[in-house]
């Protein structure tokens, strides 16, 4: 697992609502670059193995959503959840979760995750290649602080969730305020 200092340059394939389209699916594709997401901003990012999976849906995303306003008060411009899922899955998961504040960023090809050094094989669960759980503060494209779950390995028999949680992130941000 490589430790990098700058978020990798990638283009994310996202879908955005566009009322000009009309109909039951008023969305269009919009590319978003790493620079657009992180340049000139201080952003909390957390990454998880997959939408609709147990820990991700019951703990990881909901707690970041719950603490979003507190992160904003501590100088965070945006909170982003990255997962190796496509834009359609991320949209439906966000809807099902009632996520209103955290931006769900699809990394459908796993390019960002791979370049972060966090792509792992979860074939033992039938998931294929997914993200290892981690969280970080990105300040103007530079990684200020990163929390990586222990035990990083392909086909890990467990799913550690000890340090990438929202409360650990909150404590860090409070300590550097």
Quick overview:
One of its GO terms (molecular function) is thioredoxin peroxidase activity. By secondary structure, the protein is α/β, with parallel strands linked by helices.
Textual characterization of the structure:
- The chain has a single domain (11-17, 26-176), classed as Glutaredoxin, CATH 3.40.30.10.
- Helix 2 (54-73) runs parallel beside helix 5 (166-175).
- Strand 8 (134-139) and strand 9 form a beta hairpin.
- By secondary structure, the protein is an alpha/beta fold.
- The mean pLDDT is 95.
- It contains five helices and nine strands, in the order E-E-H-E-H-E-H-E-H-E-E-E-E-H.
- It is globular.
- It starts with 10 loop residues before the first strand and ends with a helix.
- Helices cover 29% and strands 28% of the residues.
- The strands form three sheets. Strands 5-4-3-8-9 form a five-stranded mixed β-sheet.
- The chain has helices at 34-38, 54-73, 87-97, 111-116, 166-175; strands at 11-17, 27-33, 42-48, 78-83, 103-106, 119-121, 129-131, 134-139, 142-148.
Helix count, DSSP H or I runs of 4 or more residues:
5
Q: What about the largest sheet?
A: 5 strands, mixed
The number of strands is: 9
Radius of gyration: 16 Å
| Residue-averaged pLDDT | 95
Q: What structural class do you assign from the helix and strand content?
A: alpha/beta
Q: Assign the CATH superfamily.
A: Glutaredoxin
Count of discrete domains: 1
State the low-pLDDT regions, or none.
none
Oligomer: single chain
**Fold-level CATH name:** Glutaredoxin
Function: Thiol-specific peroxidase that catalyzes the reduction of hydrogen peroxide and organic hydroperoxides to water and alcohols, respectively. Plays a role in cell protection against oxidative stress by detoxifying peroxides.
GO cellular component, one term: cytoplasm
Protein name: Glutathione-dependent peroxiredoxin
Catalytic activity: a hydroperoxide + 2 glutathione = an alcohol + glutathione disulfide + H2O
